[in-house]
Amino acid sequence: MANPLADCVASLRASNHLLANSVSILDTAVNDFPRLTKVLQTTKHFELLPTSDLSAAQSRLLSSLIPEFNSLLARVETHLDRLERREQALIARCELLEGRLSMSGEDGEAMTRSSAAGAGRKSLAGEGDGSREALRLKAVRAKKERLAYTVERLSLQAQQRERQLRMSVAAQ
User: Does an H or E element contain 46, and which?
Assistant: First the structure.
């Protein structure tokens, strides 16, 4: 009986030795895995993208920026239009005031001439009718000046409204 058991023990020892060799082989193979992972790992030095991804990103960026640019341009245009209208209004007012100054300068000279002429007539006639006539003449000239100023102001306002209407039509 010892014989069959000795054979079993020998076979068990051989299997044990074979398993020990297998474990050592597997151990050396598994110990090399970190190096293998490092060697097999790909390193991307430059990120290469497909052109489809790049064009899609560009179109998304463009679609988000265009409305912003358009709104900013619209704001700038309205501000510039407002400044231009203000400039035109100031120019028109300047012209109006220059006209009034030149009118008042001419009227002032005419008034001094008429008052000198009225004084000459008064002394010649010796009546109060000349002074009434001079006052009436002065009132008529003042009314004429007011009406001329009103006509000029209304014409400038009409021109300003025409410009505004043209700008609003052009903006649409």
Answer: none
Lookup result for tokens 């003449």: 137
Predicted confidence (pLDDT) at residue 124 exceeds the cutoff of 80: no
Sign of CA pseudo-dihedral 10, 12, 18, 20: negative
Q: Using an 8 Å Cβ cutoff, are 99 and 137 in contact?
A: no
Q: Are 130 and 118 in contact (CB under 8 A)?
A: yes
Phi, psi of 32 (to 5 degrees): -85, -5
Is there a contact between 152 and 102 (Cβ–Cβ < 8 Å)? no
Report long-range pairs for 84-89 (Cβ below 8 Å, ≥24 apart): 85/160, 85/163, 85/164, 85/167, 88/160, 88/163, 89/160
Average pLDDT over residues 143-147: 86
Contact 64, 142 (CB under 8 A): no
Beta strands in 38-165 (DSSP E): none
Look up the pTM and report it. 0.35
Could you give the angle at which helices 2-31 and 33-40 cross, rounded to 10 degrees?
Answer: 30
Q: Look at residue 65 and tell me whether its pLDDT is greater than 60.
A: yes
